Amino acid sequence: MRQSNTHIPTLRDVPADAEVRSHQLLVRAGYIRQSAAGIYSFLPLGLRVLSRVKEIVREEMEAAGLSEILMPALQLSDLWKESGRWSVYGPELMRLEDRHQREFALGATHEEMITSLLRDEVNSYKQLPLGLFQIQTKFRDEKRPRFGLLRGREFLMKDAYTFHLTNESLDEFYQRIFTAYENVFTRCGMNFRAVLADSGAMGGTDNHEFMALSEIGEDTIAYSDESNYAANIEMAALPKLEKPEIGEPKELAKVETPVQKTIADVASFLNVTAAQCMKSLLVKADDELVLVVLRGDHELNETKLKNVLQVEDITLATDDEAREALGTGHGFIGPVGVSSLRIIADQAVAELDDAVCGANEAGYHYTGVHAIRDIAPFSEEHYADIRNIQEGDPSPDGRGKIVFARGIEVGHVFKLGKKYSEAMDATILDQNGKSQHIIMGSYGIGVSRLLAAVAEQQADEKGLLWPETIAPYDVHLLVMNPKDEEQHSLAEKLYQEMKETGTSVLYDDRKERAGVKFADADLIGIPTRIIVGKQAAEGKIEFSKGREPKEVLTVEEALAAVRS
Ligand code: ATP
Ligand code: MG
Question: For site-directed labelling of 148, which of 156, 231, 264, 394 has its Cα 20 to 30 A away?
Answer without folding.
Answer: 231
